[in-house]
Amino acid sequence: TQRVRYLQSYFYDRQEFARFDSDLGKHVAVTEF
């Protein structure tokens, strides 16, 4: 079977600040606010 990994990145002012990883099942902060 094939696994699909879903990644979604969130950007503010052209800088990534958070992403969602389906393998982890949660949102992860990339940079501090």
From TrEMBL:
Which SUPFAM superfamilies does its entry note? MHC antigen-recognition domain (SSF54452)
Enumerate the InterPro entries for this protein. Answer: MHC_I/II-like_Ag-recog, MHC_II_a/b_N, MHC_II_b_N
Q: Which Pfam families match?
A: MHC_II_beta
- Which residue numbers delimit the MHC class II beta chain N-terminal domain? 1-32
**Quick check: keyword Transmembrane in the entry?**
no
Task: Write down any Gene Ontology CC term.
Answer: MHC class II protein complex
- Give a GO biological-process term: antigen processing and presentation
Identify the Gene3D superfamilies for this entry: Class II Histocompatibility Antigen, M Beta Chain, Chain B, domain 1
Superkingdom in the source lineage: Eukaryota
Q: Which UniProt keywords apply?
A: Glycoprotein
The protein depicted here goes by the name: MHC class II antigen beta chain
This protein's species is: Coronella austriaca
- Encoding gene (name): Coau-DAB2
